[in-house]
């Protein structure tokens, strides 16, 4: 039992850090959709990782290395000699004294430990911020594609699904609404995948006419955001909806407060109808106090739900 728990935690830890290949990630998605214990453990791991994503390491003191060497010398009462002044027999590769003195070895180990403790978290934070920025650039590109499509087709945004009466969760993905602008060549397929969620399949595109994998969530066809004549400015595309995994409804303990699984669950980028891209740390769009991922305050979904008002974004797969 302990080994199974350990394996689950290891997989979910790598999943949260985006270190799994596509096959392993798909298997974890399947388990998350079918096993509530996996979903609960993933939320716990993300809470543990949250400080790492948002913490910025302070710059080290200017005399960090010198102070370390001074403390080592004082503690061991040894005089640390630079390699250039060590006797030749202490720098030999062969027999005799080692190529590096003991105090130097201890100092080197201390420097390595400091590097790991100070710079590795900073590098992780930099990678996290770079992915957030690239995600925002993707959403801006999507808006550019929507605008070009509307300019060519009498001001109409692309909208091919889901058809009335068709289940948008099981039969006809809502993200098909973005396919016409891909097939028209206004944007490339890679912009439909947040960099924190993996990579797009560049082989799919307008020539084959196949559906391009989309890891963002798009406003339901019944919403006002995709209608050019709509007067409300609400989110029309955002990071992946946490309530749906592998095109299945994913029951969560607090569905009205859950952030997107992208960006380590710390928030989501949203594209508004006016073309601006915002970062929000909760799944709520302030002007209307609307949860962007839910139809009103519904907590259960079968694929037949639709926006409950003109200001209800309801961004779904």
Key features of this structure:
317 residues; 2 domains; two-stranded antiparallel sheet; 9% strand
Can you give a write-up of this model?
The structure is a single chain. With about 325 residues, this protein is of the alpha+beta class. The chain has 2 domains: about 1-55, no CATH class; about 145-315, no CATH class. The chain is built from 6 helices and 9 strands, in the order H-H-H-H-H-H-E-E-E-E-E-E-E-E-E. The chain has helices at about 1-15, 20-35, 35-55, 65-75, 100-150, 180-185, and strands spanning about 215-220, 235-240, 245, 250, 270, 275-280, 285, 290, 315. The strands form 3 sheets. It has a 5-stranded antiparallel sheet with strand order 6-5-2-1-9, covered by helices on one side. A hairpin with a 4-residue loop joins strand 5 and strand 6. Helix 1 (about 1-15) packs across helix 3 (about 35-55), helix 2 packs across helix 3 and helix 4 (about 65-75) runs antiparallel to helix 5. The longest helix is centred in the middle third of the chain and has 51 residues, at about 100-150. About 30% of the residues are buried. Residues about 90-95 and about 200-210 have low confidence and may be disordered.
What is the gist of this entry?
Helix 1 crosses helix 3. A five-stranded antiparallel β-sheet has the order 6-5-2-1-9, with helices on one face. Helices cover 37% and strands 9% of the residues.
- The overall pLDDT, averaged over residues, is 77
Q: Provide the structure class.
A: alpha+beta
Separation, N- and C-terminal Cα atoms:
35 Å
Rg, please? 26 Å
DSSP E strands, number? 9
């Amino acid at each position: 039992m302990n080994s199974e728990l350990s394996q689950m935690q290891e997989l979910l830890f790598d999943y949260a850090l985006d270190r799994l290949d596509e096959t392993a990630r798909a298997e974890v998605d399947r388990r998350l959709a079918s096993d509530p214990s996996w979903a609960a453990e993933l939320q716990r791991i993300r809470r543990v990782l949250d400080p790492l994503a948002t913490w910025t390491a302070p710059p080290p003191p200017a005399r960090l290395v010198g102070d370390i060497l001074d403390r080592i010398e004082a503690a061991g009462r040894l005089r640390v000699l630079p390699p250039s002044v060590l006797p030749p027999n202490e720098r030999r590769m062969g027999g005799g004294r080692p190529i590096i003195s003991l105090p130097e070895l201890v100092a080197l180990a201390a420097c390595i430990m400091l590097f790991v403790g100070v710079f590795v978290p900073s590098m992780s934070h930099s990678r996290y911020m770079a992915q957030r920025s690239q995600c925002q650039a993707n959403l801006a590109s999507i808006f550019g594609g929507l605008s070009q499509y509307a300019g060519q087709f009498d001001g109409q945004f692309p909208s091919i699904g889901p058809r009335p009466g068709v289940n948008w969760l099981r039969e006809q993905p809502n993200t098909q609404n973005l396919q016409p602008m891909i097939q028209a060549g206004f944007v490339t397929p890679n912009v439909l995948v947040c960099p924190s969620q993996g990579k797009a399949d560049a082989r799919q595109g307008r020539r084959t006419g196949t559906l391009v994998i989309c890891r963002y969530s798009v406003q339901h066809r019944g919403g006002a955001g995709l209608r050019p004549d709509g007067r409300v400015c609400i989110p029309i595309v955002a990071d992946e909806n946490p309530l749906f995994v592998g095109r299945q409804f994913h029951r969560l303990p607090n569905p009205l407060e859950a952030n997107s699984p992208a960006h380590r669950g710390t928030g989501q980028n949203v594209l508004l109808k006016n073309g601006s891209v915002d970062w929000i740390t909760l799944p709520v769009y302030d002007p209307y106090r609307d949860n962007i991922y839910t139809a009103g305050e519904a907590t259960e979904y079968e694929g037949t739900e639709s926006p409950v008002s003109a200001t209800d974004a309801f961004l779904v797969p």
